[in-house]
Design goal:
The complex is a heterodimer of chains A (296) and B (375).
Chain A (H helix, E strand, L loop, with lengths): L1 H23 E4 L3 E7 L2 E6 L3 E4 L4 E7 L3 E4 L3 E4 L5 E12 L2 H7 L3 H21 L3 H7 L1 H16 L4 E12 L2 H71 L3 H17 L5 E4 L23
Antiparallel strand pairs in A: 1-4, 2-3, 2-5, 6-8, 7-8, 8-9
Chain B lengths: L33 H15 L6 H18 L2 E4 L5 E5 L2 E6 L2 E4 L6 E4 L7 E5 L1 E6 L2 E6 L1 H4 E3 L5 E12 L4 H6 L4 H19 L2 H5 L3 H19 L3 E12 L5 H70 L1 H18 L2 E4 L2 H7 L25
Antiparallel strand pairs in B: 1-4, 2-3, 2-5, 6-10, 7-8, 9-10, 10-11
Helix pairs in contact in B: 1-2, 5-7, 8-9
The chains are: A alpha+beta (296), B alpha+beta (375).
Amino acid sequence: MRLNLAGGLVAVVVLVALVIAYMMLFSVHQTRQAIVLSFGEPVNVVTEPGLHWKYPWHSVIHVDKRILDLENPAQEVIASDQKRLVVDAFARYRIKDVLRFYQSVGSINAANMQLSILLNSALRRVLGEATLTHVVRDERAQLMARVRDQLDTETQAFGIEVVDVRIRRADLPDENSQAVYERMKTERQREATEIREQGKQRGQEIRARADRDVTVLIADATATAERVRGEGDGERNRIFADAFGRDPEFFAFYRAMQAYEAALRSNDTRLLLRPDSEFFRFFGDPTGKARNAAPK
Amino acid sequence: MPWSNQGGGPWGSGGGRGPWGSGPQPSGSQPPDLEELLRRSQDKLRTVLPGGNLGGKGILLIALAAILIWGFSGFFQVGPNERGAVLRFGKMVRVVDPGLNYHLPYPIESVLTPPALRVNKIDIGMRVIEDRRGNTIRDVPEESLMLTGDENIVDVDFSVLWKIKLDGVVAYLFNIQQPEGTVKAVAESAMREVIGRSEIQPILTGARQNIENGVHDLMQRVLDHYGAGIEVTQVQLQKVDPPSQVIAAFRDVQAARANAEQQLNEAQTYSNTVLPQARGRVANITQAAEAYREQTVAEAKGQTSRFLQVYEEYKKAPEVTRQRLYLETMERLFSGTDKIIVDQGVSSGVVPYLPLDQLTRPQPPRPTPPTGGTR
């Protein structure tokens, strides 16, 4: 009976201890931080994860301390050169001062709405000062950093630190995209035409060059040929002069004989002769006394 | 199987299920011998309680059993591609490797087992849809169309492979809210930033490697800045094309290049035909000239040598030879021609009136003579 009593006592003590522990202890998860409230009045902020104690009448509010997402829907922004851009940005932020955060915005949902508005206006402000090429090409990183800095300054009041703002998409609106497509198309057409014409041109050049080479080759060859022929003629003249120069008088006679024969050989020649020519010296006079001039 | 029929096993009372006996899940799994334990304790209770005097002992036994079960619920398994992060009252205390592990039971400790070695893949600009026929790829133009630095638009599909860093499990679990979504958002942003810095021609032709590296580096930098504990293993460009609206024009440029090439080849062919022909003609011309020269010289030499022969003889007897040559020539000459011999004394009156044409033409089939009668 005494044992029973003791056992019961122990059980009751343990039970009471557990209840008290439950009311006075709370754990904070690695990903969270907590505010301890005494009837709504903040009395403590816990950022270290693990087991912590409080008075039983305190209540605890847990808030995320990871890097949180803020997805911003796409919106149209007008760049400083009046070109319109559809910009879709996102931010990553962290709750740095949980007490201020709790007092100013209260919940993450409310914070997201606030941040979204601030992000939009910061984007418009910063991108509105830049030209389209700056946004797309030259200064994207700097512009994003500037938006981040501006947003960060504005959200200090909420106990929020903006870790990063990044432009996900910066595209032209649909109507402008059509214009870009048209331009791309015409550019390509221009390029294609240029390439084709250049091809033709270079083809022509090659043909012309070939024709030129042909002409030059033939001309050179003709020149050489004429020279060679001239050499031949010259050589002939030299040979003739050499040989015939030994007795010009006889050569004249000999050549004349050959010329007569060659020139007058054919059948269509008809000669009208006088009987007193040299050939007929003996025609009428066997002694050949009647002399006369050369044959006709 | 070493554990298939091994009642007891290394974990004693863990029962005959295997080395992991009790389900390894952190959330208070029960050892399989629970029922048996309960039954035994109930039996004991029955035997004890009716007696009444040993009630305290029974309660003690029940409490002991409950504590035992509670204690065993701390076993958990970490899969081969996982890491386990053990939290004590929500605070990270240690990281454990794959295998069987133990943590203090709930609510003191709990465990998270992220797939730390698995390589994850995110497709951007397209979705792979798996069905019975295999995989079909659906394009997502709002993700894949982007502006280039020279204000053109390209259609880029790419995939990102990423995994948790070797020492990044803690960061991965506790630093960022949505790792997957963050990787995707950062990837899109980085790709557009890199494409926005480039011009369309290199993007379409040769710069794939550069783009992949640029996006990879930029993503890694941003994720490290977030402390995400994520390693981007690879960025793979899948498709880089002009938008579908203008792709025909781009293909036409390719066709134009081919056409130009063709023009060039045709011209080369022409050139290669014409030039050898010309060289052939050149050979003709020069050879003909050479031949003419040789021929001329040879003829000249022949003629002179004939002349010299004759001349040698002539020198021996000039008068006679000259006479003879003359007569021989006249003989050959006159033998082949028509001859009319007119005495000078008479000729002066007659000659002009003779119809010389009609005189003794041998046998031409006389056409109608234009002038008067003849003999």
